[in-house]
Specification:
Beta Polymerase, domain 2, Four Helix Bundle (Hemerythrin (Met), subunit A), five-stranded mixed beta sheet
């Protein structure tokens, strides 16, 4: 069996209170039922150890919903099941998720076989760019409407307009569009991928600048926000002492530190959103 990382762990970008997105893959060789039960017990034991509450807290939250069929699918996935699913059913957002896949424990030879025979052909295949852009924009609008829940004065630095997800979607769109013909842009790390896309001519300098600069700013903001709140949170304080404390942790000073932070956030988010729309051809 091999334990595969996705998301922030896959991209080597873990932050404070980040979940670990994991996928458990085992070889289809041998007796399927016995193999499945055996590896399921190992996966469950690992998850239990990592999430066990202690006096000091717990190590990590584990998220396994990025496996085939999500929460409705089995916790551990056989090679044959992975091949069948991604050869037939994988949706665009699942291909996006696989862009950040990497092995973190176990049988790396099994991962190499899965990547060569299943992941690479599924993820890096030709796409209809206009259709993919339309689907990503629709997905983005749905996230903003149903989850981000922004309004004037209420900002979500991850899911809101011009948030971290805008940067990640822009990068993933370009990797899906060009990764088949240009393997050198295949990086699971968002800042590194931005640099590679610029270097190889797939991202204009006028778009790289606000995306890269904005991503750094928002990740710093996310870290300090979660340190202040001591939990996984992405919504900015709406004002008062809490916003002032966050602003000071970001390096702002003076009586208007909170307002200055919000002004920089609004300007950064606007720049990210404009670049995101240009990348997807919607500006």
């Amino acid at each position: 069996m091999v334990v595969l990382a996705l998301g922030k762990l896959g991209g080597r970008e873990l932050g404070y209170h980040s979940d670990l997105d994991l996928l458990f893959l085992y070889s289809s060789a041998g007796e399927h039922g016995a193999n499945h039960e055996y590896f399921a017990r190992i996966a469950q034991k690992l998850i239990s150890h990592l999430t066990l509450p202690l006096r000091e807290g717990f190590l990590y939250r584990i998220d396994t919903r990025l496996r085939p069929s999500g929460s409705a699918g089995p916790l551990v996935v056989s090679f044959d099941a992975l091949a069948s699913y991604h050869g037939r059913e994988a949706r665009l957002w699942e291909r996006q998720a696989l862009l950040r896949l990497r092995p973190v424990a176990g049988d790396e030879a099994l991962f190499e076989r899965a990547f060569a025979q299943v992941i690479e052909p599924s993820v890096y295949r030709p796409i209809d760019r206009a259709a993919a852009a339309k689907e990503l924009l629709s997905m983005r609008e749905r996230i903003e409407r149903e989850i981000a829940d922004e309004s004037p004065g209420r900002y979500n630095s991850k899911l809101g307009r011009g948030g971290l997800v805008d940067v990640e979607f822009a990068v993933q769109f370009l990797q899906l569009a060009h990764g088949a013909d240009d393997p050198q842009i295949r990086s699971a790390n968002t800042p590194q991928a931005l640099g590679l896309l610029l270097e190889h001519g797939h991202l204009a300098a006028q778009d790289h600048a606000p995306l890269a600069r904005g991503y750094r700013f928002l990740r710093r903001l996310e870290s300090r926000l979660r340190i202040v709140r001591d939990r996984s949170v992405d919504r900015l304080p709406e004002g008062g002492a809490e916003l002032l404390r966050l602003a000071r942790r970001m390096g702002y000073s003076g009586p208007r530190a909170g307002d200055d932070l919000l002004s920089d956030y609004q300007r950064t988010a606007a720049g990210i959103r404009q670049a995101f729309l240009r990348v997807l051809g919607a500006a």
